[in-house]
Amino acid sequence: MSSASMHLPSARSATIRAMLLVLVGSLGMQFSAVIAVGLFPVFGVLGTSALRMVVAAVLLLIIFRPRLRGRTRREWSGIVLYGVAMAAMNAFLYLAFDRLPLGIATTIDFLGPCLVALAASRRLREGMLAVVALIGVGLIAGFGGELDPLGLFFAALAGAAFGLYTLLAARVGQSDGGLPSVALSVTVAAVLTLPFSAPAMPLVRVEHLLPLFASAVLGTALAFTVDTIAGRLTSARVLGVFFAFDPVVGTILGALLLDQLLTPVALGGILLVVAAGAGIVWLSGGHGPAAESAGERRVD
């Protein structure tokens, strides 16, 4: 058996771990959205999104205590861009949540990372898996009934930011900075959204603290951290497919918690997304950072 063949299980194992991490992040993000919707009447849509970012930034800074000195210009550019993507993605997605059902908004949002997976695909079958995932989320959304045009526009902008976030999750995750860099990126996002969080801060009452903290931890601190760890394990192309968990989880939680019933077409879409995820795991052997580092070891 060749050394390349022997390496396939370890590369596949790394991708499976990345998939599970993205699933955890998706669960956190969507549960957070369900909680945050209840805060919209108090703080407003952008105020709620920005307050969550501030809480998450403070928490991550305390946990990781990132250093400021000794970082290269490339590291800082990645940190700042990652923070910009986080801020834009959250703000636009929450504006979409205010006008669209959870499953619809997250489906449109997923188009960004799916296009990343399509653009980065190197073989026909890999590109076809991204297409399958795209078809699946289209079926989940259903594209039926009257949808708010402005909500769709906000979801599309969130998707563009999500595509950038997908690329940067892999870049920052594979850098030397690691999770402390994530803390700095979330801090950048919190600073950028201060014009919305600052006016909302005086409105915070004791009864708001628990849902606000839970939403910030689940949807920001946890989700961004596990996505970055996943980016260390695999490539932006693979992450782009795995982010299909977002519309799947959003549709299921919308049905269970927001009385948005699943249709047979939506269930068919979920099956397609799961199939695409399984396929990308199977084909992942020999690709991504794990494979590249193993290749270097073989040369040594």
Task: Describe the fold and architecture.
The protein is built from 14 helices and no strands. It starts with a helix and ends with a helix. It has one domain (3-299). Helix content is 82%, strand content 0%. By secondary structure, it is an all-alpha fold.
Descriptive key words:
300 residues; globular; disordered N terminus
Biggest β-sheet, characterized?
none
**Total domain units:** 1
Order of helices and strands: HHHHHHHHHHHHHH
DSSP strand tally: 0
Distance between the termini: 19 Å
Give the integer mean of the pLDDT values: 81
- Number of separate helices: 14
Radius of gyration: 19 Å
Shape: globular
- Beta percentage is under 5%
Low-confidence stretches: 1-8, 286-300
List strands and helices in order, with pairings.
Elements: H1 3-37, H2 40-43, H3 45-64, H4 73-97, H5 102-120, H6 124-141, H7 149-173, H8 179-192, H9 194-200, H10 206-233, H11 236-242, H12 245-257, H13 264-282, H14 288-299
